Amino acid sequence: METMGFSIPLPWRKSSADRRVKQKQPDIKGSNIFLVPAQQKGKPLLFSPRRSPSHCRPKVKTWQKINSWHPPLSPSQSTVTPHPRLSPPPVKYASTLVRGGPSVSTSLLSLACDMEANVTFRTLSGTQYQVLDVVGEGAYGIVCSAVHRPSGRKVAIKKIAPFDHSMFCLRTLRELKLLKFLSEAGVSENIISILDIIKPSSLEAFKEVYLIQELMETDMHRVIRTQDLSDDHAQYFIYQTLRALKALHSADVIHRDLKPSNLLLNANCDLKVCDFGLARSVKTAEPSGTETGFMTEYVATRWYRAPEIMLTFKQYTKAIDVWSVGCILAEMLSGKPLFPGRDYHHQLTLILDVLGTPTLDEFYAITTRRSRDYIRALPFRKRRPFAQLFPNANPSAVDFLTKTLTFDPKKRITVEEALAHPYLEAYHDPDDEPVAPPLDPEFFEFDLHKDDISREQLKELLYEEIMSFRPAPIT
After folding, report:
1. 48-92 pLDDT, tens per residue?
2. Deepest of 86, 189, 217, 460, by most Cβ within 10 A of its Cβ?
3. Which residues participate in the annotated binding site?
4. Domain containing residue 150
5. Which residues bind ATP (predicted)?
6. CATH number, domain at 379?
7. What's the longest Cα–Cα distance across the chain?
8. Burial class of 229 by CB neighbour count within 10 A (0 to 12, 13 to 18, 19+)
9. How far apart are CA 350 and CA 343, in angstroms?
10. Which spans in 335-451 are helix H?
11. How far apart are CA 102 and CA 89, in angstroms?
12. What DSSP letter does each residue of 144-172 carry, written as one string?
């Protein structure tokens, strides 16, 4: 199968007439990045290359693009290592293609996706949106691609059925309120936005939530799983992730569920953080002595959880998200999770195998006697330097890992300090990194009384949020 390939723009680098660039020209040999798009009905996905967004470029006097845009050469024609570029469609779709048109199996696959999308999103018939394909599913929602008919823009429609369980209602309400707040504050360049919401005709007819959002082509989990990332890409992706976190943390909000699959990507390497259903204000994120409330709802992938979550420290802080960023960077560098625990005990064992046995100060920061007894009963472990775990990594990346993956959250660097770290020097610009206004103290008031709020009351709160939404024109 012959397809057209497009190079992916690598990050811009600082340059100046009066000093040399400290970092060498990127060595992209063997670092081809293939962003795997969503289901494309067996057709090659074509992208128009464009420059990296201005808010993620360093301010310099001269610019030089690292990549050029050209079709890929065949193996017999190739004389140099190709630049990072898009791959053909995923093998499971591309393998069914034949010259002259799609095969029978491809047609059936496309038809099945079309039928599923049309049945699942039949409520949208008669709206401004033409449903295309189902592109993803979750525990209580499903996402399809669609076209906004008036503008012709492709969008994602997230259908959520939150009323089967109060927890689903809470998550949907949190995400909707927070995304509205961040969008209105103008700090959502690296955060998925809500473009529109399909409004129900009445409270009685309110059965599902339909959020119209930006359509992204893949996520970090798929990218890491299918190819190696260069250090340049890792820097760029981590910078954008921290940029989103700065907007959150400046509003005293913790994401609490950062992981590769919640980092959405486009072919030009734009990154947006998604899934804010577990987000909390710092003021409402304090654990109780019985590990209820916060902990009972914390069901995110354990591989990216900070140790203080499992060991019930005195207070959960923004440092939880910084730990997750360190885990994600380690996974980008090695291509595999750093702490892939099978369960609670195995997760802690893997963490301590790297960080070593906690010091006395770290030990006494653990508040529950049960957790202390557990740590005390474990054999002594020596710390394993990250330089040994990642011998081929950029030394600045190793130092970044050392400062983000600390057992004591008080010793962990903040998001602002992480952005200013030498590893991200090529992009850091404190004047162009978002700061959100403080949240109203009652923003997450429903979380404080969630045990006393009925599902019907949550439904009414969600209905009010949807009906008060005023979308900007989609272009």
Report:
1. 333 344 444 444 332 333 232 222 333 333 333 333 332 332 332
2. 86
3. 159
4. 129-215+456-467
5. 159
6. 1.10.510.10
7. 70
8. buried
9. 11
10. 344-355, 360-364, 369-377, 386-389, 395-404, 415-419, 445-448
11. 13
12. EEEEETTTTEEEEEEEE-GGG-HHHHHHH
